Amino acid sequence: MLYTLTLNPSIDYIMHINDVKVGETNYANDENMLPGGKGVNVSRVLNQLGVANKALGFIGGHTGRFIEDWLKKEGADHDFISVNGDTRINVKLKGEAETEINGKGPIITKADSEKLLTRVRQLRSTDTIILSGSKSRGLSETFYNQIIDICTEQNISFVIDTNSKELLDILKEKPFLVKPNQAELGQLFNQSIQSKEEAIYYGKKLQEGGAENVIVSLGGDGAIFIDQNQTYLADSPKGKVVNTVGSGDSMIAGFMAGIEKGLTKREAFKLSVQSGSATAFSKDLATKEAILALNNQVIIERVENHEND
Ligand SMILES: Nc1ncnc2c1ncn2[C@@H]1O[C@H](COP(=O)(O)OP(=O)(O)O)[C@@H](O)[C@H]1O
Ligand SMILES: O=P(O)(O)OC[C@H]1O[C@](O)(COP(=O)(O)O)[C@@H](O)[C@@H]1O
């Protein structure tokens, strides 16, 4: 069974606006409110793809109820820990450029963080947990490490999507998948990554450091997949970009759905790119139909075979 963990979920308040003028009153052309937070997004797309999963994390207040109600309406399973304080609202301004203002979210007490660790201890060695997004206030800096220690002790497979440098240290615990985007990969190595060759070079360092599978997403320029044996490259399908919020999360869902369904890694990577781009072309996260509609538009090219490295 797959689990997702979102320590700091959000309502994503998406406002479409032509031009934001700082210091003035601005009016949106259109707006919508969606459940958000990286693991919540992964869960919703897994659900679209028909893969059983449960969303874990901390949720609070009327904003938290909005997320729970939405997931319930979609039939997405969840088991959040209720906390005091309101789940955050993240404002996404979609204009010529995309500007995001993410909230801080509630402060998590020691008692609630212990409850979550207890919940993770209940997972079994056949389970995989997808750890995504920033940590809430109140949690220790090493909270992900504490969860990963439980995973290691209990032989639970984990995926981690965090843009913090702790990722480099976590690699030795052998995550099943990591998925930095181009900028995040650069930040990990204090580099500005300018080409696919550079992205492959640094992506390989994550694989060599211990990650079983690495996807480096390159926005509209596609994505790279690296494991011990192969490096694959995919271009992004072309389409009208509506809202890229959650594209990266959708990629993780697509890859993990492919693995759960017994696809090859090449096919799972293809489903991952389809899922990311289908979300970029949608107002909300991608539906199954939108993902499958891109089936003929993603070509996977093998750029390296390192079986004999
Ligand atoms: N402009 C775009 N056109 C087509 N697909 C896109 C576009 N932007 C993002 N995507 C899809 O979403 C994936 C993830 O996007 P990216 O911006 O790299 O990740 P993140 O959302 O984590 O920052 C890309 O690999 C691609 O499949
Ligand atoms: O936990 P963080 O890093 O603040 O990110 C939260 C934000 O990331 C998202 O999950 C989107 O992530 P991606 O666009 O990287 O897929 C939003 O739903 C949410 O507002």
TrEMBL record:
InterPro entries: 1-PFruKinase, Carboh/pur_kinase_PfkB_CS, PfkB_dom, Ribokinase-like, Tagatose/fructose_Pkinase. Gene3D superfamilies: 3.40.1190.20. The keyword Transferase applies. Its EC number is 2.7.1.144. It catalyses: beta-D-fructose 1-phosphate + ATP = beta-D-fructose 1,6-bisphosphate + ADP + H(+); D-tagatofuranose 6-phosphate + ATP = D-tagatofuranose 1,6-bisphosphate + ADP + H(+). Keywords: ATP-binding, Kinase, Lactose metabolism, Nucleotide-binding, Transferase. Residues 6-284 form the Carbohydrate kinase PfkB domain. CDD domains: FruK_PfkB_like (cd01164). It comes from the Bacteria. Pathway: Carbohydrate metabolism; D-tagatose 6-phosphate degradation; D-glyceraldehyde 3-phosphate and glycerone phosphate from D-tagatose 6-phosphate: step 1/2. The keyword Ligase does not apply. Belongs to the carbohydrate kinase pfkB family. Catalyzes the ATP-dependent phosphorylation of fructose-l-phosphate to fructose-l,6-bisphosphate. This is Tagatose-6-phosphate kinase. It comes from Amphibacillus indicireducens.
